[in-house]
Amino acid sequence: MSKTSEERSLLVLENYIGGKFVSCRSYIDSYDPSTGEVYCKVPDSGKEEVDAAVAAAKEAFPEWSACSPEQRAKILHKLADLIEANLEEFAQAESKDQGKTITAARTVDIPRAAYNFRFFSTSMLHHTTDCSPMDHMGCLNYTVRCPVGVAGLISPWNLPLYLLTWKIAPAIAAGNTVVAKPSEMTSVTAWMLCKLMQQAGVPPGVVNVVFGSGPRAGDALVSHPEVPLISFTGSTATAQRITERSAPYCKKLSLELGGKNPAIIFADADLDQCIETTVRSSFLNQGEVCLCTSRIYVERSIYSAFLERFVAAAKKWKTGVPSDPSSKNGALISKEHLEKVRSYIALAKSEGGIIHCGEGLDKLDLPQRNKSGYFMPTTVITGISDSSRVMQEEIFGPVTCISPFDTEDEAVARGNGVRYGLSATVWSKDVGKVHRVAQQLQAGLVWTNCWLVRDLNLPFGGMKNSGVGREGGKDSYHFFTEVKSITIKH
Ligand code: NDP
């Protein structure tokens, strides 16, 4: 059957297995979130494709794991160079696929993807292992660390290449081979990366990318008996499913999950800096960042002034066409997600919440071709009880809720009063107070008087339902290797 002109113009992705691009029997439609139109076909892989990818990764493992860390580092550096050389092409593709602004992709996502390879290629060269002499027993004990084998890597749609490379880079730098599955909604830059793998000289089978849906390709990967390790970033609900599916094989799991992150703002905070940063921390990337602030607790004496200034600043955070340099936010990932985010606004209204700006109040000025895109203006809500689903569940959109508090203890208790524990921010000039509050907050990351300052050497991950395990620097080295204790009797 001959193809229609529309089909001919679609981008068609292929799996990358054993160093070759391989087509698939069936495909999933992928949408441009800024127009709502299908523009790409993504392989709908299942067990057969995952089996082939795991076999290729297994075959490549002995040689890759036997390379010196320096040899591996050289290849990873080459990959970083190639991403940087193609930065603009990657940024345009990430924006079209995900809906984020080109500026965000150009300044955050793609540079960070390159940096992930640079950082882990060098950081892996500097780890040492332990040694403990037992002279009274005539023994010397020491530890060695070996790559685990085939790593299964599953990443979400919000920061597609950024989070995928955050996993691929440490996994292969440590000597593992990988089978990666990006989100079916944002697969394009992963496919582009595979072309660079070939150019950088990554040996066939070291990195395999299988595209498809979570329930088919993802499930086949997490339940594959020859994949001993899974690094997953995504929702808490999917993590629970992955934990169940991998349990019969006792896999090593690293789970980076959702958040419902509080900002606690005391009366002595530097309000100029605090408001500017908290607007960014609430709305960056359309609010589709696991670390975004979604509950803002403000000391009552400054509450009214804060609210007025915050709403004014939020209104200036422009939502518009992703290619427009003046847009701060682009489109949300999908129609379903837009509807889900909107449903929380409707819920807030039904519970007596006040919508200060955004959804239902502010009209977006979009060109005709973007009228069916998944855009939503930045929305600020007050008057919602802490027990409401709006304050308890991860909305993952450009929505934030503000509420007053009276005492430090109350702020900490309310900050901790959700099932999540990923990140938190604290704003005060009182150094004793910020230490005290940071110490008590149940969160894997606490920023005081700033947000999203990241040193990749530090552990990254969440407490409670926000995750299991930590990655970054030494923690990634530990996760992507197995430790062995050896005792020598002399
Ligand atoms: P999902 O959990 O829906 O999906 C994440 C990945 O898992 C996707 O590749 C998805 O595939 C795949 N998947 C879905 N079902 C299964 C399954 N049964 N078995 C194996 N894999 C599966 O999350 P989202 O993509 O919606 O991402 C948003 C979530 O990610 C938010 O909760 C956010 O907080 C969290 N996140 C956490 C971060 C952290 O570091 N803590 C960072 C960024 C995001 P597919 O999409 O193709 O179906």
From TrEMBL:
Q: Which family does it belong to?
A: Belongs to the aldehyde dehydrogenase family.
Q: In which pathway does it act?
A: Amino-acid degradation; L-kynurenine degradation
Active site (catalytic residues): 256
Q: Does the keyword Oxidoreductase apply?
A: yes
Q: Where in the numbering of this chain does the Aldehyde dehydrogenase domain appear? A: 27-486
- The reply on keyword Oxidoreductase is yes
Cite the EC number: 1.2.1.32
> InterPro entries annotated for this entry?
Ald_DH/histidinol_DH, Ald_DH_C, Ald_DH_CS_CYS, Ald_DH_CS_GLU, Ald_DH_N, Aldehyde_DH_dom
- UniProt-annotated location(s): Cytoplasm
Q: Briefly state the protein's biological role.
A: Catalyzes the NAD-dependent oxidation of 2-aminomuconic semialdehyde of the kynurenine metabolic pathway in L-tryptophan degradation.
A single GO molecular-function term is: retinal dehydrogenase (NAD+) activity
Task: Tell me the organism.
Answer: Pundamilia nyererei
Pfam families, per this entry? Answer: Aldedh
The family database entries (PROSITE patterns) matched by this protein are listed as:
ALDEHYDE_DEHYDR_CYS (PS00070), ALDEHYDE_DEHYDR_GLU (PS00687)
EC category name: oxidoreductase
- This one is known as 2-aminomuconic semialdehyde dehydrogenase
Xref: PANTHER family: 2-AMINOMUCONIC SEMIALDEHYDE DEHYDROGENASE
Keyword terms, alphabetized: Cytoplasm, NAD, Oxidoreductase
In the record, biological process GO terms are: liver development; retinoic acid metabolic process
